[in-house]
Design a protein that fits this description.
The chain is an all-alpha fold. The chain has six helices and no strands.
């Protein structure tokens, strides 16, 4: 490996390690400068919080439905099946499936898996966030923003647009870190 490759790998490693810390710093700045963090006041969620949660839930449900539907359409397009029983009943074997079909199915499975993984953390954080009386603007930006970012992520992943996928991944993480940092700081002040 030449010195230019080593240097590129070192820069990439630095970026990978610094990336989450940079996002957290951005979230902290936004929370302090735009939303004004106040001490936690445990209460039932406010009407704006419920609206933000409803918007996010609808967007995440639309995202799930889209991923589910495109997965099934890909199976139908390439003559593939979901279970060993379906393969057996069809008289076909998975090994005979077109490589392109398997790649496209894997893309959809990966997008769906990534969406599910992120939604678990979102649900946990959103629940805690919703009962801590956050600023209404923070609720809309972080909660509804997550739903929008996940739709953008799914689109860009399925369309094979890596740069756009990275942007929406960052926006999704920004929303998660925004919620987490808001609650963490509010617990301290």
């Amino acid at each position: 490996m030449d010195s230019a490759q080593v240097e590129r790998r070192q820069r990439a490693r630095f970026f990978i390690l610094a990336y989450p810390f940079a996002l957290i710093a951005i979230c902290l700045l936004l929370n302090f400068l735009l939303f004004g963090i106040q001490s936690i006041a445990i209460a039932l969620p406010s009407k704006p919080m419920i609206m933000a949660l409803v918007i996010a839930a609808i967007l995440l449900l639309a995202n799930h439905t889209w991923l589910m539907t495109t997965t099934e359409l890909t199976r139908a397009k390439f003559g593939m099946y979901a279970t060993p029983e379906e393969w057996q009943a069809s008289g076909k074997k998975r090994e005979d499936a077109a490589a392109k079909g398997l790649e496209e199915l894997e893309r959809r499975h990966n997008a769906h898996r990534n969406s599910t993984e992120n939604t678990v953390y979102f649900a946990l954080l959103a629940f805690v966030f919703s009962v801590t009386s956050p600023a209404a603007t923070a609720a809309f930006v972080w909660i509804a923003g997550f739903g929008v970012a996940r739709l953008g992520y799914s689109y860009s992943y399925l369309a094979g647009k890596d740069g756009l996928r990275g942007l929406f991944m960052s926006l999704s993480l920004l929303c998660l870190y925004g919620i987490a940092s808001y609650v963490a700081v509010a617990a301290i002040v």
